[in-house]
Backbone:
């Protein structure tokens, strides 16, 4: 299960097997890290990594995954994350697996942490991952469902057409 093998008290696992960090913990961590730095309402990857260590993630072992996750999130390459971005970063990271980019992208898109993403979000990311995927194929894959889970998402986006 991703890089969060142990289950520290800040982590909970829902019925789908998806891990969640308490909002309170993430916010507290963010504010403390930002206050130690320049209090500009943003933290950088080094500051963010402190939270990973606290919840038992080995930063050295997960280096590539952290880098990939951060790069996917930080589209303007500002090297800084707001609280909202940091929340998504942590959520995606604790549920990611090394070498499974589709999985990381899914969780980065699942901003409300429901474990599913909508058709609109799905279209955005699926096309990014697999340029051969047409809108019709995406809609067909959704079977008119409004939301799609991670297993189904990976199956569709990694399918070679
Ligand atoms: Ca800062
Ligand atoms: Ca969602």
Residues:
């Amino acid at each position: 299960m991703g890089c969060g093998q142990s289950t520290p008290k800040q982590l909970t696992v829902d019925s789908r097997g998806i891990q969640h960090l308490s909002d309170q913990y993430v916010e507290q961590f963010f504010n403390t890290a930002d206050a130690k730095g320049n209090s500009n309402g943003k933290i950088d990857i080094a500051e963010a990594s402190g939270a990973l260590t606290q919840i038992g993630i080995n930063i050295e072992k997960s280096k590539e995954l952290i880098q990939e996750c951060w790069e996917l999130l930080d589209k303007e390459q500002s090297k800084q994350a707001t609280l909202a971005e940091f929340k998504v970063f942590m959520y995606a990271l604790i549920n990611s697996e090394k070498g499974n980019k589709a999985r990381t992208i899914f969780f980065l898109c699942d901003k409300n942490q429901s474990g599913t993403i909508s058709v609109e979000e799905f279209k955005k990311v699926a096309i990014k991952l697999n340029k051969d995927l047409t809108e019709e194929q995406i809609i067909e894959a959704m079977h008119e469902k409004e939301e799609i889970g991670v297993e189904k998402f990976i199956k569709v986006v990694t399918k070679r057409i």
About this structure: Residues 116-158 form one domain. The two ends are 29 Å apart (CA to CA).
